[in-house]
Amino acid sequence: MQANSNRQVELPPAGKIRRGPPSPNPKKWVYFGFLFMLQLEIKNLRVAIGENEIIRNLSLSVGVGEMHAIMGPNGSGKSTLAKVIAGYPDYKVTSGEVLMDGENLLDLEPDERARRGLFMAFQYPSEVPGVTIANFLRAAMQSRLPEGEELEATDYYAKLYEKMDLLEIDRAFTSRAVNEGFSGGEKKRCEILQMAMLDPRYAVLDETDSGLDIDALKIVANGVNSLRGPDLGVLLITHYQRLLNYIIPDFVHVMVQGRIVRSGGKELALQLEEKGYEWIRDHAEEPVAA
Ligand SMILES: Nc1ncnc2c1ncn2[C@@H]1O[C@H](COP(=O)(O)OP(=O)(O)OP(=O)(O)O)[C@@H](O)[C@H]1O
Ligand SMILES: [Mg+2]
Fold this sequence. Notes:
By secondary structure, this protein is of the alpha/beta class. It has helices spanning about 1-5, 25-35, 80-85, 110-115, 135-145, 155-165, 185-200, 215-225, 240-245, 265-280; strands at about 40-50, 50-65, 65-70, 90-100, 105, 120, 130, 175-180, 200-205, 235, 250-255, 260-265. Strands 6-9-10-3-11-12 form a six-stranded mixed beta sheet, sandwiched between helices. A four-stranded antiparallel beta sheet has the order 2-1-4-5. A two-stranded antiparallel ribbon has the order 7-8. Adenosine-5'-triphosphate binds near residues 74, 78 and 80.
C-alpha cells in the first residue's frame, strides 16, 4: 500500500532527460521531490501569435546548476520561448506552465520574474536612450533589495568595475546610455555584464554569441563560465557549436517547429554541425512535420 502511495510523487514526463531512477525509499522520494522543484520547468507549453501556433507542446527542465543549450533552425521558436519565459506581452500562452522552483512564472509580471532571480539576455537588446549603464544597473540591483535597504555605492562600483574588467569592457562605458550606438558585440557583452551584476538563479541567453568576434566570444564565454556554479541554471540558445567549445553544456536540445525533437549531451551539437538539421528531422525522437 505504502509503495503505491509513493507513486503519487510526480515524475518528469517522457521526453525529458531523466536524472536517475526514482528510489523506492520514501525518504529519498521526498528528497527527489525537492530536487525536482529546484528547476526552471516548462511543461506542455503552447504559444500562439494571432492564429499562428509557434510553440507546440514543449516540455523542458533546466535544473539549478545546469547548463542547457538549445539549437534549432531559424524560425523554430527559440526566441519566442525565451520571451515567453521572460514575460513578453505579445505572445498568447494557450496551455502549459512555466515554473521556477515550483512557482508559476506565467502569473507574474516581467519585473516580478526578474526580482525572483530570472534573467534574460535578448537576441536583439533594446537601446535605452538617456539612461547610463551605471544608473540602469544600479536601479536594477536596488529594485531587488528588500524595502528600506540601500545599495551601498562603494560596493556597487567595486562590483561593477570587477565585472567590467572580467568582460574587458572599457570603464568609459559606465557613462554611456544602455546599448545606444553600441556595436553588436558591445551589446552582447553588456548583456552579460548585466547578468554578472544581477547574479540570477536562472538565465536565458538568446544568441549571446551572435555578432561576436573570436576574441570577444572567448571573453563572453569566460564571463558566463565564471558565473557557473550550483546556484545558477542556464538556458543558452545558439546556432553555433563553436560557442559550446567554450561554454560546455550539460545537455543539448534541438528545437524544430516549436518542439524539442531531440535531447542529448554535448556531442549532439557536434553531430548537428556535421549532419545538419535534415538528419534531425529524419531521426527525431518526436515526429516532425515536413
Ligand atoms: N510578433 C510576431 N508576429 C508574428 N510572427 C512572429 C512574431 N514573433 C515571432 N514570430 C514568428 O514566430 C516564428 C518563430 O520565431 P522566433 O524568433 O521564435 O524563431 P527563432 O527560433 O528564434 O529563430 P532565429 O534562429 O532566426 O532567431 C517565426 O516564424 C516568426 O516569424
Ligand atoms: Mg531567435
